[in-house]
Structure formats: structure tokens, C-alpha cells
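Journal club prep — side note

Before the paper discussion, L.F. wants everyone to see what a predicted structure for a comparable chain looks like in C-alpha cell form. Sequence:
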Amino acid sequence: MTDRSLTALGFHDVPALRPLTYPGRPVTAPALLAGSELWELTPSPGSPGGWPVLGAPRIGQRRPREPLDAVLARLGQVPLEQRHPVIAVGSNASPAQLHHKLTALGHPAAVPMVPVRVRGIGVGCSAHIGRYGYVATAPYADPAAETPLVVSWLDAAQLASVDATEFPNYRRILLPGASFPMVLPSGERLGGAYLYVGARGVLAGPDGAPDRPSGRPRPGGGDQSALLTGLLASSARLRGLLGPDPRAWIRRAAADRALRETAASVFAEEGWVLRGYDPLSTLA
């Protein structure tokens, strides 16, 4: 039997444990996170609850291609219709990070995770520093964007647990599919999904000179070391607080909440914080 463990499949980096690997490796094909394993899902017409699961351990004469809902029931978990679709723009798209979050809080890591293309949403950098020291991603409204993201279906307890890891720096909104089309690999469209949006705004990107903000969001989701290096190069105050390099930034920021807040205030003082990009503001 093929080893379907996260480690064997290359999902070994957990950003909460190795912050410079943020946002971690996302799923790129439909899958069921089942404990520390990742089982393949085959896109089919209709609800993902009916998509066949490949790789689940066979019991007795059970079919090797059981529908997702049947496999969830066998695992003692609720079906898809009793779950909440949540779109991830950052580390929640990484099965390793999601497994770490859920199991650390005592919840089973049984989560369908599926790539989804979303129109109207771009991915930037949140204007805060997370408790592990990294600068996380945050979505923003961009009518011209069509972005590959990941949707996970969480049960009520899992959703509450993920909420606890996101608040107060993010708030959860319901993104309507009519205004932000969300297309699954099967071609099916979601009617809507939850999305965590930043409560602190997003960082502006540089405009030519590193220390001059452009007025447009800085792209997020890339190499964390490169991001921190760029921010340090653009601000003498940040270098004094968190420098001289990304490893020092992570070490100092993760150890001191007050320092994280002080450093985040520098973002605003440098004129880097953009507001008014909340996805729901475009619906007014």
C-alpha cells in the first residue's frame, strides 16, 4: 500500500513550528485529510460528498472507491452537508498546519480539502505580526483577480477551533458565490464560503524604491524570508526592533507579544497599511 502520510507526501513543514516555511505547502489536488494521512478525492459531478475517496484503508468487502460521505461516516465524522466550507488564503491551506491546529486543540483532523478558483479575491500580507513571528497573508478585494485557493469543509467544533487561532487579527465573513464565483475542479460552483479577512488592513507593496509604498497591496503567500528581508531593508526602525535578518525577526517576535505590537505599529508609521480592501466593502 502506498504511504499516504503527510511526511511521505512532502507535507512535513508546519509553519507554526518552522515559521520561515509559512504559509506551508498547500494541497494542489482534492484530498481528505484523515489524521496524519492525505487520501485522494476524485472530482465527479455533484456535491463533493459523493466524490470517490482513493487510498482509504479497505475494511472487509467495502469498495476501494467509497464516496466521501461514506468514508467520513466510517471515521465517525459528520457528512459534508453538516460542514462549513472555509476558503484558506494562507497556512490553513496546508494540511500539515491544519492537522497541527486541530490536534493541538484535541479535535480530529478529518477534513476534506479541495482546490478552488475564486474570482474577485487577491492575496496580500496582513498588517500584523503573528504569534509565531511571521507576517501572514490576508485576502483583499480585487475585481480582476482569479486566484487558486483551497476550500476546507470543517465541522462545528473544528470551525470554532480555527476561529480561536484566527481571532482577533482576522474576522470570519461569509463570501457570497454570486459576487465572488468559486469553481471546484469538477466545474461545480459553491454558493458561498467563509473567509477570514484581516482586521488590521494589508501591507502596501513597494513602488520602485523599497521605502516608498505603491498604494497597491503587497503580494502575499510567497517566500517568508524574502518578505521579511524586504521589510527590514525598508525600515530602520524595524531593523532596530527585529533585525538584522529573518531568523532574528522570527526569534524576537515569537518571544515577545509587546514587541510584535510595537513592530506592527511601525507598519502604519511607515505608511504601509492599506484599508478599504475588505472584500465585502465591494458589495455596498
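L.F.'s comment for the group: The mean pLDDT is 92. Keep this in mind when we get to the figures.
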